[in-house]
Amino acid sequence: MRKKKPSIWHRFTHFFINRLDRISLSAKLVACTLVVLIVGTVGISAAIRQMVGNYLLQKTDNELISQRTLVMRNIDVLRKADKQTNGLSSYFLQIRYAENGELTGEVATPLYPVLDGNVVSMPKLPPDDQIYDSMLGKPYTTSAVVRMATTHDLSSDSDGDDATSSETVGGNVSYKTMQTASAPWRVAAFNWVDESDKTNQRKGVVFIGLSLSDQIDTINTLTRYCIIVGIAIVLLGGSLAALIIQRTLDPLKRIEKTAAKIAAGDLSQRVPPAPENTEVGSLSASLNTMLARIEHSFHEQEQTTAKMKRFVSDASHELRTPLAAIHGYAELYTMQRDLPGALERADESIAHIERSSQRMTVLVEDLLSLARLDEGRGIDLTQSVSLTALVTDAVDDLHALDPDRTVRLGTVAFAPSGEQPAALNIVDGDMPPVTLMGDALRLRQVVTNIVGNIHRYTPPDSPVCVAVGVLPASVRPAELAALPSMDDSMRRFLDAVEVGQSVHAGTNYAVLCFEDHGPGVPAQSRSQLFERFYTADPSRARDKGGTGLGLAIAQSVVKAHQGLICASDTPDGGLTITIMLPIGPVESLSDAPDETRDEGDKSKPKASKGKWLAR
């Protein structure tokens, strides 16, 4: 089916809209303002002209009607009066006589104005046969008849008839005089009845008129004044509108320039601020918030990409080492299998291959655990877990691995800020019973990884302190989990604990502290402890069997529980790992059961000590 061609009107509209869209916003606003001003001034001027015209015309009609009685009573006087000096010379007066109620055709014009240059202007009146009763007493407008003035000698005979003789008087006539003479007339016709005659028989018809030249001149003057004032208003209003619109759109132009810089790649640019009670200010604030989030997300994406690249590189390096050992010992066995003593050398090669495969298996399992935690899988937060039992088991494992090591147990307490900053203290004694909802297997993995690092990286006779406690803090678990594992995050948590203890509100957190007195970690490296494959001493870590993934797994598990894990210096030297895990609102602490261990947790299968501590 053929497509219907657009109509001419549609194409014209489309063309006009396209051209209109290419005009700038400021030009459109100024043009709209000018159109509104022009339409407003024209409308107001037309309304004023119409109102004043109607008022003056009504005033003229009232004057004509008000002169009726005066004219009727003094017709004879007016007929004999001097036309040039009579006070009513601006009026026009014509009398048409009648006999027996019928007009006879006899006409007398005792009054008419004579203008400069002896110009006479009279209204154009209807003939006798076109004068009807319906038009009597009703003023109407008629055109003017202009002629040069003639001299009249008015004389009255015994019958009262007028005899006239004329002489044309010439002269120069100005344009203004002719314009005034050509103005239309307002005329009213009235019956002339002799009041002394009881029969009230009509003696004639009297026409009284007034020129509308003064009214027209007034209207024209008012119109010119309105035009001048309207032009001034349009020009002034357009200029002010252009300045105001330009001033108002300046922030948008600055936003446009900022957007261009951001598009060029400079995400640090921000829109200049403006009062937020204005539309531009609200837009600027929203844009700056959006830009800050975009910049933060972009930097996070860059960091994630860099970490992913480093992760892939480190994983490849870590997997390449055992694979190279496996490949090397396999080739060695192939080369030496026909030589004397090949069986003993084969056993040695197989042992090396087995150790390398075990190391690779542990590494792959840890990578798989991290991948599952990153995807939010492989963790069950619906179990009731006794943290005290988990820590006790881990301490027992540490005793078995390092019999000469002194392990001190205690309770985590809070030391408010005074002369010294707020801190966590450990009070010697039995650990309090602490139970929360979480994944028992994953939390056991966290505790065992930390204890395993203590076993691998600290001297076997150095003391260790392990403590558990419950502290209220005025920070939500989601906010705490979003914090990075840095000293500033630990300081923020301590500030929240100080507020929570003072107002007795917030969330109760289980706090686990593991203090060792080993070589410790430099301050600039502590924030990297929880990165994947990071080790403070890579060669030593490889000798000890570490993969650099233990603390990264611990951080992922803790964050999955909406908690925080941080590393800090031990006061007497060494490293302290602190874990904060949410338990519940402060109000619910008094309702918690006094169970020290989760019996269901004991029934779950427990991994061997060697396997847990190897991570």
From TrEMBL:
The chain crosses the membrane at residues 222-245. Residues 246-299 form the HAMP domain. It catalyses: ATP + protein L-histidine = ADP + protein N-phospho-L-histidine. InterPro entries: HAMP_dom, HATPase_C_sf, HATPase_dom, His_kinase_dom, HisK_dim/P_dom, HisK_dim/P_sf, Sig_transdc_His_kin-like_C, TCS_sensor_his_kinase. SMART domains: HAMP, HATPase_c, HisKA. It is found in: Cell membrane. GO terms for molecular function: kinase activity. Residues 586-615 are annotated as: Disordered. This is histidine kinase. It comes from Bifidobacterium panos.
